[in-house]
Design a protein that fits this description.
Largest sheet: 3 strands, parallel
Distance between the termini: 12 Å
Number of strands: 3
Shape: globular
Number of domains: 2
Strand content: 5-15%
Oligomer: single chain
Helix content: 40-55%
Structural class: mainly alpha
Order of helices and strands: HHHEHHEHHHHE
């Protein structure tokens, strides 16, 4: 999401409309609001990678620390849940260990940086909205987030159990983000705001 994947064209990044560091004034990214348009390119860095999972965050945080930032934004976890099947989802204990390591790496190089942590979105709500869209169904058939979005029109009990398992894992990930962030005096969790966002046909 931080690379704005699929936002401008199908299956490609569009970082200019990133919620965090985008330069498009229509999006009004966090960086634009804090820095203004003249400084976004020189005073902000987008170290995200489309498809990255929590295990990659420690290295990303080390890279962020090297820039001596005043603020670091983190939106990580959807790809840990969006696997081909539920059994491939990142175990919660591994997710926690990687997030703890990531914050430790940041603190080693940038002890004063503020950290804003966004919750993992409610993928089941995305499914329930997108399954009514012919375009969404066509894109999902390419294999995106199979654990939640495969066979999107199947409302049978097995499919519902599969989707419930993914949603439960996302809820657990958000619990980890909140708990670990709370232990760091300069870290703020969004309180579940992204998880609670209601996708619609235009989102």
């Amino acid at each position: 999401m931080t690379r704005a994947f699929d936002a401008c064209s199908v299956l490609s990044d569009c970082p200019e409309v990133s919620w965090a560091t985008g330069t498009d004034t229509a999006v009004n990214s966090l960086a634009l609001r804090l820095l203004g348009p003249a400084k976004v390119a020189t005073h902000s860095w987008n170290l995200a990678r489309t498809g990255a999972r929590m295990a990659e965050l420690p290295a990303q945080m080390a890279g962020a620390a090297a820039e001596k930032p005043e603020l670091v934004t983190v939106m990580m976890g959807a790809n840990d849940a969006c696997r081909a099947t539920p059994d491939q989802m990142t175990p919660v204990a591994e997710f926690r260990a990687s997030f703890e390591q990531a914050l430790a790496r940041l603190r080693a190089g940038a002890p004063e940086a503020q950290v804003y942590v966004a919750s993992v979105p409610d993928l089941k709500h995305l499914w329930s909205t997108g399954r009514l869209s012919p375009m969404g169904l066509r894109v999902w058939k390419l294999g995106i987030c199979g654990a939640m979005l495969a066979d999107a029109e199947d409302l049978g009990p097995a499919a519902e159990r599969r989707r419930a398992a993914v949603r439960d894992r996302v809820v657990a990930y958000n619990g980890v983000l909140e708990q670990v962030c709370a232990k760091d005096a300069r870290c703020r969790y969004d309180g579940g705001a992204v998880f609670g966002f209601r996708f619609d046909g235009g989102s």
